[in-house]
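Task: encode each sequence below as structure tokens.

Item 1
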Amino acid sequence: MDSHLYPTYARADIEFERGDGSWLYTGDGTPYLDFAAGIAVCSLGHNHPHLVEALKDQADKLWHTSNMFRIPGQERLADRLTEVTFADLVFVTNSGTEAMECAFKTARKYFAVNGHPEKFKLITFEGAFHGRSLAAISAGGRDNYLDGFGERTPGFSQVPFGDLEAAEAAIDDETAGFLLEPIQGEGGIRVFEVSFLRKLRKLADEHGLLIVLDEVQCGVGRTGQLFAHELAGITPDIMAIAKGIGGGFPVGACLATKEVGACMVKGTHGSTYGGNPLATAVANAVLDVVLEPDFLPAIREKGIKLRQKLARLCDENSDIFEEVRGEGLILGLKCRCEVPDMMAACREAKILVVGAGENVIRLLPPLTVSEDEIDQALERLSEACAIVRSGHGDVAKSGT
């Protein structure tokens, strides 16, 4: 029988029954090393005991009340996020796309309440991905995501990746600020240089504009810093987060300074499910782990070792890979072969990876991945290279 689901995904024909740490298991017990982590979502791996305990404990108490009432877990999450970031105010959402929508609205509202309603446009950068809503795909600017959905949502213009002169030239009387991912995930693990981010912050300040960061994928420890922009020593005015903050449970947030976020007064935004007791219990449990003193330094160390091993893999398989990209545990391999072929070969080698733009595969292991699992990943990636060369099995019919 054909599935009654929308045919919007090119799904691999694999079903997983359970997970444990960095591993996923099919119904017959076949283990796969998970270097996809639900696209950087399962930040603490699968079946993490502290997250499971937090969810079960809250599930026995209360699931939902709506934001008509105070939610202590939501307030605690906001308190903790503001303690460790630039932000003073937090709006809790269900997803990264919702966090981005809140960010768009906050940027526009800030200028409107300060006497400049004409300033509603954000300058974005080629290769961006900011979600799947109509506004988010307009911000991303990719024709393949926009095709068939009518006119683009106004308020976004795009300049080449990392081009500061183009960014400055794009500023006009309607510009509210700049929107970017410090590390583009979907765009191919492209890292904005530290010097560029610092100059962009300076440019925004000179023109009285905002910096809006999308750290939905690269945030919550994935670079070895709590958030990727910390690598450049800059602070945004607004930031969207999600994915890793929930460890697999749907939750996101929009963070802002008091100056900017205070414009979002009663009635300007809302969410039925956003920040519900279940979601915030899990998000707080994630922070319990990520904010442990040794956790982020361990990610930096593992990231360096993984990158070094991947560089060696590239040297040994220069017919398959061109280069390694990324920071910490958000890494990419630019392929010479077709990405669908490499992904199929990786599945045959029992390791899961994620495709991206610029013919790149993303490696996004759980932040809890062990050094032994990193070594196993390299063995399996090497095996995948051999499979690609042979062109047998699923590679020959991958096509997706």
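Item 2
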Amino acid sequence: MAKTNPRQLNRMATLFATLSDSTRLRILNCLRGGPRSVGEIHRACRLKQANTSKHLRVLREAGLVTPRRAGTTVHYLISEPLIFDLCDVACGKSANGKS
């Protein structure tokens, strides 16, 4: 790891803590196909709506998802697409598709 300042280390720790929950990873995977409403996410991930909202808040605070209001509906989208490269590497796949 290159020399990293304390602020960057704190950001990394927050990111990895956020990604340490399998429910949040399921939500991110659900959003891989594009923006979805809270209702769509909770149905696709088979979660309770309150639990979905709680996890989306954590993902939003970590800067991984962004809410977009469309009338009375809020859609969430991935704000940092490189997160999927990190997830692929963690699952044993390189970012270029080779294991």
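Check on item 2: The domain at 10-90 is CATH 1.10.10.10 (Arc Repressor Mutant, subunit A). The mean pLDDT is 88.
End of task.
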